[in-house]
Amino acid sequence: MVIDFPKDELKPLKMILQSVQDGFYDCLGLFEKEEMVGYTFMVKLENSYLIDYIAIFPEHRNKGVGANLLTLIDDYLGNADRIIGEVEDPAYTDDEQQKTLQTRRLGFYLRNNCYDTDLRVECFGVKYIILEAGKKKCRNKDEVWDLYSRFYKRFITEERFEKNIRAL
Question: Is the whole-model pTM more than 0.85?
Answer without folding.
Answer: yes
